[in-house]
Amino acid sequence: MKKRLTFFANSSLSIIIYKIAYILSTLIAINLLIYFAPKNSEWVEMNYSQGIYLKISSLLSNIFGVLPFSLTEFLIIAVAVLVIVTLYVLIRNFSVTNFLKYLLSFLSIISTAMFLFWCLWGINNFRMPVENFLPFEKNKYTVNELERACEILLEKTNNLRELMEEDINGVTTANQDYKKILNSSSDAYDNISEIYNIIPTSGKIKPKPMIFSKVMSMLNYTGMYNPYTAETNINIDEPIFNMPFTASHEIAHLKGFPKENEANFISFLTCINSDDMFFEYSGYLSGLIYCSNALYREAPEAYVKLKNNFSEGIIRDLTYTNEYWNNYKGFIARFGENNNNVFLKHTNQPEGTKSYGLVVDLIISYLMQNEV
Question: Could you give the percent of the chain with pLDDT greater than 70?
C-alpha cells in the first residue's frame, strides 16, 4: 500500500513538473517570436505574410468555411461553460493539490492558445507597412490637405447618397438582405486585388453572420476575426449601410493585415472600387467619418463649414448610426472597448483603439495622389 501511494505521489509530481516545463518552454518560444520578428520585418513579409500564412489561412478557411454558422460563437460559449463547470468542480472538491492541478492545466491551455495565435496569424503584426507596396507615398498631411480630402469625400458621398434607397424614416436601406451583402464582400476584393498586388487573391470568403449580434453591439464590436478558424464574424445588427465596410475590414484581417488602420484603409479601397454602389457608399461614408472627425479636432471652423454641405440624407444616416450606438453605451461597452484596447496594445499596435483613426494618413495620401 505504501509503495502504491509513493508511486501516485511521484506520478503527480512528474505531471506537475512536466506542465511547468511545458508552460515555460511555450512562453519562451512566444517571447523569441516577438523579439526576433520585429527585427526581421522583411523576412516576415516575404516568407510568412506572403507565403506560409496564406497557406495556413486558406486551409483553415476551406475547412471551417463550409459551416453555415459561426463556429467562433459556439467556441466562446463552450469555453465559458467549461470555465464555469471547472470552477464548480474545483470548489466542490477543493484542495491545494487540485487547485495546483487545475491552475497548471489552465495555464497550459492559455500558453498553447497564445502560441497558436502568433503562429496562425499574429506574426503578421510585424510585417512591412502596407504603404511600402502602394503606388503613392504616405505623408503626414497638412490641414489644407485634410480639408481638401474631406471635400472630395463629401462630394462622392453626397452623390452616392442620392442613389440610395430609403426606409420610411428616410435612412439608407439596402435592396438586398445582409446575407447577400456578406457574400458580395468577397467579390468586392476581386477588383482591388487586380490593382494592388499586396492584397492577395483568394477563393470565395464567406463572412459569418453572428447569432449574438446584439451582444456584439453591447460590447461595442462590429466584427471579429478568429485566427484559429479563419472566420470573419460580422455583427449583423449594426446599421446595414455600415456592413459592407465592416465585412471588408474583417476580410482584410483574414488576408493577413491585422493592424486596424491598414485593415480600415484596405476596406476603404475595396468598397470604393466595388461595382456595387451600396459598397461604394459604405466606403466613402466611412472615409468621410474618419477624415471629418480628424478635421473637427484640427480645424473646428473648417469642420463646421464642411458639415453645412452634408446632404440631409447623410445627416439622417449619421444620426441613425449615433442613436444606434448610444443605446449600447454603458459598462459592457466600456469593458469591450477596454478589452480591445489591451489586445491591440499587446499585438504591436501601441495606439490601441486609437489606431482605427490612423487610417486618415493613408486615405489623404491616396486621394491627393489620385487628384494629381
Answer: 95
